[in-house]
């Protein structure tokens, strides 16, 4: 996969382009990606067009909590057979570009779009004046096709003041809705919209090695900056390293029993793995919130709770402990 980032100097030929912020890479986004891949049979390059800087961060002048970091999005796109990922610079100049200029100069002239794929509610250009009807009109004039994807919906719990009401309603699958689920720790609901469990990737660093002393070594990862994180607590998880996948228990938080500072950590006990993960890139998938973070009176109480967490996680995954 070719990744074009940090430049507006782009020259491509014969492309099918999927347009979107692609910050959630949810099931709706996946339909767009599958659409452009179908056009590869016509000799077109499958191009995923997004921005190298989330538009809302510039427009609202504050960081946006990312469901996928830039690095995670690149890995996701490559795994799914994208030919070219364009991370277009989002600047004041970009935000002021008229929709017609964006289509004519960027998509058609520079990227040679033969097909443009977008969601039915997609808006772009200055003051979000660009939309699907505009794309279709310009497509007729500039000789490109427009493939429109309908919004996917999901039945979700209705919350008021952060509490479930027992009522359900149909809502569009969106990155905003996924963020709501992640913030309240509803990982299973988030996974339904993402199509995969929410995950955090990073390099394993050395911690205080307390877990090793307890006979439960942990893989420590510092969550990426601006990555949205669920509430502090313990999660049933899976840890992916290379081609291998292991059931695990993940604690997100401040480790109040033993920590000597207020830095947030993600520590994962990969209980069916033996060996060292230091320095390796891992992906930790969070499947279910098990309990809030707790402070224990001593290390024995902490160790006993970890055994209970492990039993609950093994039950969740339908596994049983190997006995020798």
The overall pLDDT average reads 89
Q: Compute the separation of the termini in Å.
A: 46 Å
Helix fraction by DSSP (H/I, runs of at least 4): 25-40%
Instruction: Round the Cα radius of gyration to an integer and report it.
Output: 22 Å
The ordered string of helix (H) and strand (E) elements is EEHEHHEHHEHEEEHHEHEEEEEH
Give the count of helical stretches: 10
In summary, what is this structure?
Pfam families: FAD_syn (PF06574), Flavokinase (PF01687). About 30% of the residues lie in helices and about 30% in strands.
Describe the structure.
By secondary structure, this protein is α/β, with parallel strands linked by helices. Helices cover 29% and strands 30% of the residues. It has ten helices and 14 strands. The protein has helices at residues 27-38, 55-59, 70-79, 92-95, 99-110, 132-142, 175-183, 187-194, 210-213, 299-317, and strands at residues 2-5, 15-19, 45-51, 84-88, 113-119, 145-149, 153-160, 163-172, 198-203, 218-221, 233-241, 244-253, 265-269, 281-292. A six-stranded parallel beta sheet has the order 1-4-3-2-5-6, sandwiched between helices. The chain has a six-stranded antiparallel beta sheet with strand order 9-14-11-12-13-10. Strand 11 (233-241) and strand 12 (244-253) form a beta hairpin. Helix 5 packs across helix 6 (132-142). The radius of gyration is 22 Å and the shape is elongated. The N and C termini lie far apart (46 Å). The relative contact order is 0.12. The model has no long low-confidence stretch (mean pLDDT 89).
